[in-house]
Amino acid sequence: MIIVMASRSKEDVDYVVSRVEALGYKAHLILGVERTVIAAVGDEREKFRLQALESLPHVEKVVPILKPFKLVGRELKKEDSVVEIGNTSVGGGNFCVMAGPCSVESHDQIIETAQVVKEAGATVLRGGAYKPRTSPYSFQGLEKEGLEFLAEARGTTGLPFVTEAITPEQVELVESYCDMLQVGARNMQNYGLLKAVGRAKKPVLLKRGMMSTINEFLMSAEYIMSEGNSQVVLCERGIRTFETETRNTLDLSAVPVIKKYSHLPIIVDPSHGTGHWDLVGPMAKAAVVAGADGLMIEVHPHPENAFSDGAQSLKPGHFSELMKEISELLKFVGKTL
Ligand code: PEP
Ligand code: MN
Question: Distance between CA 284 and CA 293 in Å, rounded?
Answer without folding.
Answer: 11
